């Protein structure tokens, strides 16, 4: 079905997810190389490319840094490249990203980053990837719907090709997982064979050349800022409407003022809905370019306003920029943002509607449904039949859980932290369960069991394991090998059975210097329980590989 949709003929309109529209936009741009590590809400991008696997090279990389490095290599070889990841993946990839901005691209390159306001699938933190613009000086576009997802990808490739710079498209959960009609255009098929031509002045970031590269990067950003001023993705709606709103002061005097709204991303859709519901015709500046911001267009929009509302999710990035710009063109402008808009959690239509009503001094009452019977709170649980239930059962029989520390990580086993399991005393990021376990061991000597999934082990667990062996620590590490990247949609990893000549985890563990290694199918509860008891007392790092496939993999 995916292939039928995404290989459809141009001129038609079809319903696509935002993530699927990104794939279509890349194919219409003639993408030649695609790399990713799966992470919700960006997972469908890689999954869709994987199912098509036609006229371009595609890979699931071991982590986001490696995915970006592979993409950089393809770009240096002249190929049109796309790399996709979620917000925390961008953190992992930063070491590679910042020098890439200095070297610039040879083949145009687009980096998709999906944020998750309200942490629907992101336990670690509520990250706002827009902030990376000021650190890395990377152009960032923000689509609001699937049509813009497709169109912005094509524009991003054009910008990258014109200015020789990677371009980032920042989406959020509501953009990535939104469905809407998308108009298709012609798919371009490119040659997947590139050529790397030696050019140390261009590709090698060493002093003093690296300082020249930074200067060149800043000059590119100034040129892109000029490009942004004329871009159609920055648009003003209802600007010609002179919409004085009246507010009665305490003295009875009536004052006229002019109001406006500035926004970007999915917030724009909420604003349109809110203005319709409130029957208001306020001018709206919708910014498709987050960075570099079109300052002249913003100045022209705000110069005659008395009051402007900034509607954006999470940190007040736009609000700070408008505050800075307003000082030169309208110093008396009242700028309202996070005083009315929450800084925590994703926005919802009712939040935006009630905020605009307050801003415009218009009466609005949101209808709240009062339930007669309270809904019982239910924590997310592992799937019925999940092999991890057998691990939980064995641990609770093998040890006193009040006397052992349990380290968690990113994957289905995050749910170990919920009642009634309660086997998670800390949770941070990919690969961290082992690294933190080592630190606790060295600091306290307490018994500790850390969990790491098979995909997470390949992603970031190996360096932490080497560190624990090298520095003579002795946590018990249980590698939960369900033979897939389960939580994000069952994508393959280097050790998955679906991968020809897959890498055996126990061979890597032994190569890291671990002496006490045992692979067990946890269905063998007696053996599993006895091994936990034995390995927990070892004076060195010990590893149990709990190998039993995810029930969905087993069915396939």
Automatic annotation (TrEMBL):
Q: State how it assembles.
A: Heterodimer of the IorA and IorB subunits.
Function as written in the Swiss-Prot or TrEMBL entry: Catalyzes the ferredoxin-dependent oxidative decarboxylation of arylpyruvates.
Record's catalysed reaction(s): indole-3-pyruvate + 2 oxidized [2Fe-2S]-[ferredoxin] + CoA = (indol-3-yl)acetyl-CoA + 2 reduced [2Fe-2S]-[ferredoxin] + CO2 + H(+)
What is the uppermost EC class here? Answer: oxidoreductase
Q: What is this protein called?
A: Indolepyruvate oxidoreductase subunit IorA
Specify the superkingdom: Bacteria
Required cofactor(s):
[4Fe-4S] cluster
The catalytic activity of this protein is classed by the Enzyme Commission as: 1.2.7.8
Recorded hits in Pfam families, A to Z, give: POR_N (PF01855), TPP_enzyme_C (PF02775)
Cofactor binding note: Binds 2 [4Fe-4S] clusters. In this family the first cluster has a non-standard and varying [4Fe-4S] binding motif CX(2)CX(2)CX(4-5)CP.
Keywords associated with the record: 4Fe-4S, Electron transport, Iron, Iron-sulfur, Metal-binding, Oxidoreductase, Pyruvate, Transport
Q: Name one GO molecular function term.
A: 4 iron, 4 sulfur cluster binding
Ranges of residues in domain Pyruvate flavodoxin/ferredoxin oxidoreductase pyrimidine binding = 25-202
Residues forming the Thiamine pyrophosphate enzyme TPP-binding domain are 420-545
């Amino acid at each position: 079905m995916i292939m039928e949709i995404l290989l459809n003929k141009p001129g038609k309109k079809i319903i696509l997810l935002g993530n699927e529209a990104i794939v279509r936009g890349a194919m219409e741009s003639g993408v030649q190389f695609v790399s990713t590590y799966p992470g919700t809400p960006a997972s469908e991008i890689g999954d869709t490319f994987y199912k098509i696997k036609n006229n371009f090279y595609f890979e699931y990389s071991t982590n986001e840094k490696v995915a970006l490095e592979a993409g950089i290599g393809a770009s240096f070889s002249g190929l049109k490249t796309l790399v996709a990841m979620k917000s925390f993946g961008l953190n992992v990839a930063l070491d590679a990203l910042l020098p890439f901005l200095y070297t610039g691209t040879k083949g145009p390159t687009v980096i998709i980053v999906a944020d998750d306001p309200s942490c629907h699938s992101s336990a670690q933190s509520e990250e706002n990837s827009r902030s990376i613009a000021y650190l890395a000086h990377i152009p960032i576009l923000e689509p609001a719907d699937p049509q813009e997802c497709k169109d912005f990808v094509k524009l991003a490739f054009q910008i990258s090709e014109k200015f020789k710079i990677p371009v980032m498209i920042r989406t959020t959960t509501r953009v990535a997982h939104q469905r809407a009609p998308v108009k298709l255009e012609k798919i371009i098929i490119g040659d997947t064979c590139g050529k790397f031509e030696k050019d140390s002045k261009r590709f090698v970031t060493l002093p003093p050349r690296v300082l020249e590269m930074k200067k060149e990067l800043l000059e590119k950003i100034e040129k892109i800022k000029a490009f942004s001023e004329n871009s159609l993705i920055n648009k003003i709606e209802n600007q010609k409407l002179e919409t004085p709103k009246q507010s009665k002061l305490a003295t009875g005097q009536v004052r006229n003022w002019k109001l406006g709204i500035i926004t970007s991303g999915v917030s724009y859709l909420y604003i349109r809905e809110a203005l319709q519901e409130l029957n208001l015709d306020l001018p709206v500046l919708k910014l498709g370019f987050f960075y570099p911001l079109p300052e002249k267009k913003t100045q022209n929009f705000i110069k005659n306003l008395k009051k402007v509302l900034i509607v954006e999710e999470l940190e007040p990035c736009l609000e700070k920029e408008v505050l800075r710009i307003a000082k030169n063109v309208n110093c008396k402008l009242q700028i309202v943002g996070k005083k009315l808009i929450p800084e925590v959690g994703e926005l919802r239509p009712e939040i935006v509607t009630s905020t605009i009503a307050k801003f415009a001094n218009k009466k609005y009452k949101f209808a709240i449904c009062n339930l007669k019977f309270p809904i019982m709170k239910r924590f997310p649980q592992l799937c019925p039949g999940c092999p991890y239930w057998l691990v939980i059962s064995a641990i609770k029989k093998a040890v006193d859980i009040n006397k052992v520390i349990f380290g968690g990580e990113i994957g289905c086993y995050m749910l170990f932290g919920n009642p009634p399991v309660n086997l998670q005393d800390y949770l941070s990021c990919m690969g961290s369960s082992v690294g933190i376990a080592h630190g606790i061991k060295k600091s306290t000597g307490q018994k500790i069991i850390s969990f790491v999934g098979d995909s997470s082990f390949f992603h970031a667990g190996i360096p932490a394991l080497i560190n624990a062996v090298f520095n003579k620590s002795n946590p018990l590490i249980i590698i939960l090998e369900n033979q897939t990247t389960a939580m994000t949609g069952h994508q393959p990893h280097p050790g998955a059975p679906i991968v020809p000549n897959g890498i055996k985890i126990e061979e890597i563990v032994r190569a890291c210097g671990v002496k006490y290694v045992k692979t067990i199918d946890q269905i063998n509860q007696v053996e599993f329980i006895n091994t936990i008891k034995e390995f927990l007392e070892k004076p060195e790092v010990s590893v149990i590989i709990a190998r039993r496939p995810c029930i969905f993999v087993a069915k396939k």
